[in-house]
Design goal:
There is one protein chain. This protein is mainly α. It is built from seven helices and no strands. Helix 3 packs across helix 6.
Length: 149
């Protein structure tokens, strides 16, 4: 397996490199564990992307509820949700420049589901929520952002 500086800066790229190297060395008679190991490296990439999407959608949902229902927004549970999901998103992005570059598109893709979530969980009308994400991807990571303010 090649050594790569990506291990410390972009785990997504490093996992892709490892999987590719293992597959390149796994000929027809290769040990099945070599192919399984390559699958595991690719699975790590998939799991990180799924975790990022899940926590990013939760963050967007909680921020929308906090903004649109100030009484609910003052609830400690919503504050904890914002803090927890933001911290996990930041941790995932700190380990992958690839995922950080993909963040703006991911926010745009996940916002409709987060909007639907906020309407349901916050007992709001979806039409009363902003039609597009009111925060930039980088602004979502700012610990001072608790709602739309």
């Amino acid at each position: 397996m090649p050594t790569s500086a990506f291990y410390d800066t972009d785990i997504d790229v490093w996992c892709a490199e490892q999987a590719s190297a293992l597959r390149a060395g796994a000929g027809a008679g290769a040990d099945p564990d070599t192919r399984h190991l390559a699958d595991e490296f690719e699975g790590m990439r998939t799991r990180d992307r799924a975790a990022l999407a899940s926590h990013l959608e939760g963050l967007l949902c909680a921020l929308l509820v906090r903004h649109c229902r100030p009484a609910a927004g003052a609830d400690l549970d919503w504050t904890l949700t914002v803090t927890r999901d933001r911290d996990i998103v930041i941790d995932l992005l700190d380990n992958s420049q690839t995922l950080r570059r993909e963040l703006p598109a991911l926010v745009e893709r996940l916002y409709p589901a987060a909007r639907h979530c906020a309407a349901a969980r916050g007992h709001l009308r979806e039409d009363d929520l902003p039609p597009v994400a009111p925060w930039s991807a980088e602004r979502l990571l700012d610990p001072d952002v608790i709602g739309l303010g």
